[in-house]
């Protein structure tokens, strides 16, 4: 029962709502008289107590006052104007949820699921979950993890394949649904291909997807790769050789179409040339190095000329394309670091002091600068490199010997003694075999003293390594 705003009577039927006020049949006929609408000029029932009142059509023929949407169904007419169904919820008076007591504008009954009280969306979501039979997110039976339909009907027979499946899935099983979806998508896509050859290839591709990944994934991904086949159809009308695709798309572009390319390769429609693929990939990286160079114009011209010479060396099989990329990356970084062209020796020294690992990649560029641009650059010599390499090798040798000896490791072993002297004191390996060495314990620093030709050399206590 609802209450009329004018007379206060309880009624089942509200005939007219006007500015959030509701009127029964009797009050409507008495208050809303027929007269000409001041806005549109049509004859309609208009409230006689409001001077600016217009007909119902003009009341509603305005954009939503909240979102400014036009051509919508009215959700609520407020004193300020109409609002759409999506915005009407924001003009409701908040009420308490019957379960949690929280104020909310979104209270609903779920009579279908046996919920007759108005509850908020948060309480409703607590009652929802994934059905353990059909997997759908629905209201679950209290005390069970299945939805109402699966609980009532259980397993039923699919009308397509005759296999049993949970009733919550609908009128057919998932496999039949995705097979039908795949077929519909395929037929729709075939209409977008002109040549019969590509139509046959695309049909074979759908069958390959079905065999490789099953009906669900095949139906989901087939449209993602349609544009690849359509572009082939528009440009060549047949599947071109791999080299043609590589020149047009590039290695990076073909990498975005891995699934169709795998299909074309497995069905022998193309033959992937790995060498050309790697060459194309490296060539594009080289182009990006030159195009993305941030130095001045003359330095960029020098870098571009250096690239041309390196690519000629690749054609003559003097260097590999990957080596060219490494050379150019180091050269571009050096030119950007120097900022001013031509280079001077202090630029090379400062750069290699910052990045010593690029010395090998810059050697050829330094020679190129001297030959082509008349500079007098030199690669700085690392005086300590030989010592670092020797110390690293001695360390690896000592660790290997200690692991092999285990708990029996001792400086009495000439190989261990020789490796230890080489690592800790830089002595040549032959010293242990040619010189007389006297060993004695040294308790103060927890080690041993090796005496050679009257000089004492301290060695730390050995630690056993696990095998």
Account of the 3D structure:
The protein has helices spanning 25-31, 56-60, 85-88, 121-126, 148-153, 174-190, 196-221, 226-235, 242-255, 258-266, 274-291, 297-315, 321-338, 345-354, 359-373, 385-405, 414-425, 431-434; strands at residues 2-3, 10-11, 16-18, 21-23, 32-36, 43-47, 74-78, 81-84, 95-96, 103-104, 107-110, 115-120, 128-130, 137-139, 155-157, 164-166, 437-442, 447-452, 455-460. With 467 residues, the protein is an alpha+beta fold. It folds into five domains: 2-91, no CATH class; 95-169, no CATH class; 176-272; 289-373; 385-460, no CATH class. The strands form nine sheets. The chain has a three-stranded antiparallel sheet, with helices on one face. Strands 1-2 form a two-stranded antiparallel ribbon. Strands 3-4 form a two-stranded antiparallel sheet. A hairpin with a 4-residue loop joins strand 17 and strand 18. Helix 11 packs parallel to helix 13 (321-338) and helix 16 (385-405) packs antiparallel against helix 17. The longest helix is centred in the middle third of the chain and has 26 residues, at 196-221. The radius of gyration is 42 Å and the shape is elongated. The chain starts with a strand and ends in a 7-residue tail after the last strand. The mean pLDDT is 85.
What structural class do helix, strand and pairing data support?
alpha+beta
How would you name the oligomeric state of the polypeptide chains in this document? single chain
Radius of gyration: 42 Å
Q: Count of helical segments?
A: 18
State the shape: elongated
* Termini gap: 88 Å
Reported for the largest beta sheet, the result is: 3 strands, antiparallel
Indicate the low-confidence ranges by residue numbers: none
Give the neighbour order of strands across the main sheet: 17-18-19
Strand content: 15-25%
Helix content: 40-55%
pLDDT averaged residue by residue: 85
Write down the domain tally: 5
Q: Kindly state the number of beta strands.
A: 19
């Amino acid at each position: 029962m609802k209450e009329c705003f004018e007379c206060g009577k309880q009624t089942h039927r509200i005939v007219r709502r006007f500015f959030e006020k509701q009127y029964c049949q009797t009050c409507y006929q008495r208050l809303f008289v027929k007269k000409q609408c001041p806005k549109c000029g049509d004859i309609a029932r208009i409230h006689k107590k409001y001077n600016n009142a217009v007909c119902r059509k003009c009341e509603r023929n305005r954009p939503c006052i909240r979102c400014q949407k036009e051509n919508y169904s009215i959700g609520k007419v407020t004193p300020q104007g109409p609002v759409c169904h999506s915005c009407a919820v924001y003009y409701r008076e908040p009420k308490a949820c019957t379960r949690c007591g929280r104020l909310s504008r979104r209270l609903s009954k779920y009579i279908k699921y046996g919920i007759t009280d108005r509850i908020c969306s948060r309480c409703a979501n607590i009652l929802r979950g994934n059905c353990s039979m059909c997997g759908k997110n629905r209201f679950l039976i209290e005390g069970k993890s299945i939805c109402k339909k699966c609980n009532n009907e259980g397993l039923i027979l699919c009308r397509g394949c005759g296999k049993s499946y949970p009733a919550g899935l609908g009128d057919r099983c998932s496999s039949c649904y995705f097979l039908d979806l795949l077929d519909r998508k395929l037929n729709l896509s075939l209409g977008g291909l002109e040549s019969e050859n590509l139509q046959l290839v695309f049909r074979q591709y759908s069958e390959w997807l079905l065999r490789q990944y099953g009906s669900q994934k095949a139906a989901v991904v087939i449209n993602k790769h349609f544009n690849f086949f359509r572009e082939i159809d528009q440009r060549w009308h047949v599947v071109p050789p791999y080299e043609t695709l590589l020149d047009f798309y590039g290695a990076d572009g073909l990498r975005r179409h891995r699934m169709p390319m795998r299909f074309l390769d497995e069905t022998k429609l193309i033959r992937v040339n790995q060498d050309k693929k790697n060459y194309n990939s490296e060539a594009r990286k080289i182009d990006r190095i030159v195009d993305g160079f941030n130095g001045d114009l003359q330095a960029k011209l020098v870098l571009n000329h250096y690239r041309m010479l390196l690519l000629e060396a690749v054609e003559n099989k003097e260097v590999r394309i990957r080596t060219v990329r490494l050379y150019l990356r180091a050269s571009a970084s050096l030119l950007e670091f120097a900022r001013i062209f031509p280079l001077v020796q202090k630029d090379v020294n400062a750069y290699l002091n910052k990045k010593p690992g690029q010395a090998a990649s810059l050697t050829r560029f330094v020679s190129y600068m001297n030959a082509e641009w008349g500079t007098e650059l030199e690669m700085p010599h690392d005086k300590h490199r030989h010592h670092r390499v020797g110390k690293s090798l001695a360390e690896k040798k000592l660790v290997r010997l200690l692991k092999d000896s285990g708990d029996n490791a001792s400086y009495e072993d000439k190989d261990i003694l020789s490796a230890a002297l080489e690592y800790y004191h830089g002595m040549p390996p032959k010293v242990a075999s040619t010189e007389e060495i006297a060993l004695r314990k040294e308790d103060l620093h927890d080690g041993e003293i090796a005496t050679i030709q009257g000089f004492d050399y301290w060695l730390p206590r050995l630690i056993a390594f696990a095998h």
